[in-house]
Amino acid sequence: MTWTANISGLVRRVFASRSKGASFPRHCSLCGYYGWFMPAGRPQRIDVRCPKCGSTERSRLMALWLSGHGQFLQDASVLHFAPERGMSDLLRRRARHYVSADLVGGRADRMLNIEAIDCPDASFECIVCSHVLEHVDDRRALAEFHRVLTPGGVALIMLPVIEGWSRTYENGVARTPEERKRHFGQSDHLRLYGADVRQRIRTAGFALEEFTAEGEDVLTYGLQRGEKLFIARTTA
Length: 236
Ligand SMILES: [Zn+2]
Prior knowledge:
There is one protein chain. The protein is an alpha/beta fold. It has two domains: about 5-55, no CATH class; about 70-235, 3-Layer(aba) Sandwich (Rossmann fold), CATH 3.40.50. The protein contains seven helices and eleven strands. The strands form three sheets. A seven-stranded mixed β-sheet has the order 7-6-5-8-9-11-10, sandwiched between helices. Strands 1-2 form a two-stranded antiparallel ribbon. Strand 1 and strand 2 (about 35) form a beta hairpin. The longest helix has 17 residues, at about 5-20. The N and C termini lie far apart (about 50 Å). Bound molecules: zinc ion. Zinc ion (ZN) binds near residues 30 and 52.
């Protein structure tokens, strides 16, 4: 594709986003774009997708944290599950070594099962995992994160949390996609996390910090109010 086709595609997408209710220009914390974001999601939300790098709110929150805390990446080997394009580009650029992974072939550098990661112990300084744990056996995945991370290594984890619930909702009755959709709102989700998700992460052997954007940053970067990034470090 030529640069003129790229530019005209970008202009077309930006005009389309304005006509669909984008409220005002935003900054992309991931790629540096400034302008209108496109709508996305079901049900559709306005001001969501960066037309340049494809980021949505969750990637921009992680990029915002990395902008102040991401110096360690230059010395880190990073394993990134279910890679989003914009975040994948950023990590590949900044990390000492970068490997993307997905359960499905052709989507990433390696085909890996997050519940049984085919990598040696202590082989990565950083794991990035956004909106995956709600789809899998998270206790096995977290134990695997702990195993493949070096002592003091960090897992950057994002997942949907219902902060008003003290307990995570799981129900063994929901075995089919239809039942899972009824119980958990999405046919491929296995639970709805409550605030106790923090304890699940700690139980796997991690010390936990969390980050959310507040005030004007939410407007500037087009973020979800109160969305959390969990920063889980292995305790040596
Ligand atoms: Zn962007």
